[in-house]
Specification:
alpha+beta; four-stranded antiparallel β-sheet; 2 helices; globular
């Protein structure tokens, strides 16, 4: 699994509300592909959140990130491999 911290920059082109709808559609596409464990926005940071991707390689995580509306220049993506010790239904 890979935990991806996402921080949207201030240089977003277009309407941020519309772009966030596109971003949420991207997350929905990850769900449809059964590659998302969970996702959410940080309550203590503006324009920031995380996705926890259920993939086996960093390359797979990078391929998913490449489809986000803010990629590559309008957000930062910090990718961290996560060793899962406990998981529901495991």
């Amino acid at each position: 699994m890979y935990l991806v911290n996402i921080k949207v920059k201030d240089n977003v082109e277009g309407n941020i509300t519309d772009r966030m709808v596109q971003h949420r559609d991207w997350i929905k596409s990850i769900i449809k592909n059964n590659q998302l464990f969970t996702a959410g926005a940080y309550v203590d940071q503006d324009r920031a959140g995380m996705v926890l991707l259920d993939v086996d390689t960093k390359a797979a995580a990078e391929n998913i990130i490449a489809n986000d509306t803010f990629y590559p220049n309008e957000a930062t993506y910090e990718i961290n491999q996560l060793q899962v010790n406990f998981k529901p239904n495991n």
